[in-house]
């Protein structure tokens, strides 16, 4: 996890240009209840352009606190808000990435809450396993993903058309969504490069707008974006073997 440039610029722009002499810090507050108001107050005063702190949590490291900014931006602070860190926290005993585990928790999507009426449904084999994926028809990685997906056995896939790559993507998504056999036209295009038939003039494409709105709400910033039955999200294309492994692990 790295600084995004706008956020780094935002933070650095508020820092003094001349280094200050460091004074020994007093002992950190003993509890989260004591630390949280001090952290919020200090950062609000010193970094007024910092996005709103939504949540403050204790970490396994005494005196270090997790700050959640927005939906899923993770920072760490000492108990007085004197130092602000961004990076990954690793548990060396278990070799677990604690920051990534927290991000997985924050970005998980309840599979049962997915608006499947707005998806194209594909069924492979007996369809016993479940997978949802947000895809743009102009996305080259999505074409590679669909080729790998076609070799996976026994899975029902909910494809949410997610046209975020420009006007061509929007027009093609409309043609695919308005087709009589959406699944066939989608696979013809993604697997065989067969151009979809033009959509009729009166076709209702409000589902596409809802998909984009849903994706923005849950910060789906690229395609393909995979969502498994347990809510775990995996960005990017995966080969067939990786898909089988992920489906087995995330039921």
Question: Secondary structure elements and their pairing?
Answer:
Elements: H1 5-12, H2 32-46, E1 53-58, E2 64-69, E3 73-78, E4 84-85, E5 90-91, E6 96-97, H3 98-107, E7 120-124, E8 129-135, H4 140-149, E9 155-161, H5 167-177, H6 182-192, H7 206-217, E10 225-228, E11 233-235, H8 240-249
Parallel strand pairs: 8-9
Antiparallel strand pairs: 1-2, 2-3, 3-4, 5-6, 7-9, 8-10, 10-11
3D structure, described in words:
With 251 residues, the protein is an alpha+beta fold. 35% of the residues lie in helices and 20% in strands. The chain has helices at residues 5-12, 32-46, 98-107, 140-149, 167-177, 182-192, 206-217, 240-249, and strands spanning 53-58, 64-69, 73-78, 84-85, 90-91, 96-97, 120-124, 129-135, 155-161, 225-228, 233-235. The strands form three sheets. The protein has a five-stranded mixed sheet with strand order 7-9-8-10-11. It has a four-stranded antiparallel sheet with strand order 1-2-3-4, with helices on one face. Strands 5-6 form a two-stranded antiparallel ribbon. A hairpin with a 3-residue loop joins strand 2 (64-69) and strand 3 (73-78).
In total, the number of strands is: 11
Helical coverage, percent range: 25-40%
- What structural class should be given to the helix and strand makeup? alpha+beta
CA gyration radius, whole angstroms: 23 Å
Average residue-wise pLDDT: 89
What general outline do the C-alpha atoms trace? elongated
Regions with little confidence, pLDDT below 50 for 5+ residues: 1-6, 15-20
- Alpha plus pi helix count: 8
- State the strand order across the main sheet: 7-9-8-10-11
What fraction of the residues are assigned to beta strands by DSSP? Answer: 15-25%
- Beginning-to-end CA distance, first to last residue: 26 Å
Main sheet?
Answer: 5 strands, mixed
Could you state the order of secondary-structure elements as H and E? HHEEEEEEHEEHEHHHEEH
